[in-house]
Amino acid sequence: MAKVRAARAAEAAALTELVMRSKAHWGYDAGFLAACAPELRIRPDEVTARRIVVAENERGTVLGLASLEGAPPLAALGLLFVEPSAIGQGVGRLLYRDVLRRAVELGVRRLVIDADPHAAGFYRAMGAVTVTGPADAAAPAASALVRFEAAPVPLAGWARAWTGGGRAVHVGNVAEFNAQFADASLDPEQSAAHHYACLAAFYSPDPAALVLPRPVPKGWTELVCRQLGWSGVEVYDGLAEGDPGLCEAVRARPALAALLTGAGLPLVPWGRTRPFGRLAGRPWRAGELRYESKSAAHALFGRILADGGHPGIVLPAQWRAAGRWAAVRLLAARTRAGESSVLKSEHGVGGSGTTVVTPDRVRAAGGARAVLRRLPRGPLLVEEYVAGPAEADGPRDLTYDGFVDGAGRVHEVGGAVMDVRDGCYQGATVGPGVVPAWAEKPLAAFGAAVGRELAESGYRGWFDVDFVADGAGRLAPTETNLRLTGPSVAFMVAARLDALRGAGHLVRIADRVELGARLPEAQLDELCAALARGCAELGAVFVPAIPTGAFEPAPWLGVLVAAHRGETLDAAEALVRAGARAVGAEFTAFAARPTR
């Protein structure tokens, strides 16, 4: 594996020769190369001044070099050249990321790159943003440099506070978290929830180990690590395939438990549970998760609003039905009054047990009793439906994410826009400008107020507050989740990519991208690699988030896509969805071919 070190003055002549070999790789003629030679020459007295580093293999052979030139806040990537025999082996990626890391340490906030046109695709894939027009308009069209820029930034402050600025052990106890509520609205698939445990890869920006209930494809972890610049990530999977008790399964393996807890790294779960408390050596507080209950959260929201100071927030009315018949009578009465309602279970997850019911829907179903008969058994909440704008030209579902650290301090992470259909969460988008300007302040102020109340109640960990936008430019809080979520995963990936590729990433998580056919593991690896390449060509990043759904009878993938621009993000998502459908169809056709 290649490593980076500072170049030496005595290497200047050899490095110049490497630069010229790398330039010649693109087929330029001798005259053009001779004209470039003075500019590309490296002199011994420049090596330190130009901050030149080299990448070398384990044998000490130099494979490439890069320079970081200028003074903060503006600097330039003056050189980045790779030995022709090493092109395509990740050397350029290693050097580029090292330049961004060093730029952050120097205080550089704007990095300029004048790229050979043959290298433009590389810089686009690495996250650099094209600046309109060539860098040298006087140069011949075939050789005109292409200008890119990147904005080096350190890891976000909230991300450093989340895990103390270092690596963490991620425990995918999704099923264990859901199971502790014993809610009848949670169907068997959601109670198991082992597919969503794959999101453990993204519980912090820098994992040291993943602890998973089901086996995961090796190719998946390798691609995720490559896309996010991780190394040395240990994977412990297949620990609790048919049981929600992941933490107990780890504790039943004393050597593994000692390895995970004895490294001095923070353990990050999907959510707090009593078994996780035993594994991590943390006390379990009775009632710590009481605001995971939708009715308790509603009461909390009401108390916060009673104190004033949140004019942009409105709370929908909510009623707890004493029983099934009471729910029928309440829904029927609201239907007769022409009112739409939201039916909720007390602890539904990911939209489970949340159903929007309009008067037309009740009549079409044959009455309120018929509607409720089709819903899961268990306690029901009936909530006032918050009507949205007459013209759906803005986001309808938003969320605020934050966390309470071990000392009880509340940290704001940010706001996101969710994709919610008929009460069911489908995905979310985070990043600069995603939340509309009118919603930013009330969202942040109310989310922070909820965080303070959670901290006062003794809760420690991640939380979010979900909202819907009404037709008058106000936000209505609907629930709080005391655990990690899909949007939190997107925030983690955005923080990692900003530090790895430059600031300003938009990240979208899509829970389910349908596949046209079940794919064997090798074909799934090929599909994901092809989607990663296709997105890179657009200047976007593709990360498969949930691979194990691909092996279900109705196959699907959870995915993450990221880009610096909204149109690029949309194009990347469209490419991923189309590619998933097309490869599935191709595989089905191949499998159906007659054999001889």
Topology readout:
Layout: E1 3-6, H1 12-24, H2 30-40, E2 52-56, E3 62-71, E4 74-82, H3 91-106, E5 110-115, H4 120-125, E6 129-134, E7 146-150, H5 157-163, E8 168-171, H6 174-179, H7 188-192, E9 207-211, H8 218-228, E10 234-236, H9 246-251, H10 254-261, E11 267-269, H11 274-280, H12 294-306, E12 318-320, H13 324-336, E13 341-345, E14 354-357, H14 359-365, H15 368-373, E15 380-384, E16 397-404, E17 410-421, E18 424-430, H16 437-456, E19 461-469, E20 475-481, H17 486-501, E21 506-514, H18 521-538, E22 541-546, E23 556-563, H19 566-591
What does it look like?
With 596 residues, the chain is α+β, with helices and mostly antiparallel strands. The chain is built from 19 helices and 23 strands. β13 (341-345) and β14 form a beta hairpin. The protein is elongated and about 85 Å long.
Q: What's the oligomerization state?
A: single chain
Can you give the mean pLDDT? Answer: 91
Radius of gyration, rounded? 27 Å
Strand percentage lies at 15-25%
Helix content: 25-40%
Poorly predicted ranges (pLDDT <50, ≥5 residues)?
A: 136-142
What is the overall number of helices?
A: 19
What is the rounded distance between the termini? 45 Å
**Biggest sheet details:** 8 strands, antiparallel
Sum up the overall morphology in one term.
elongated
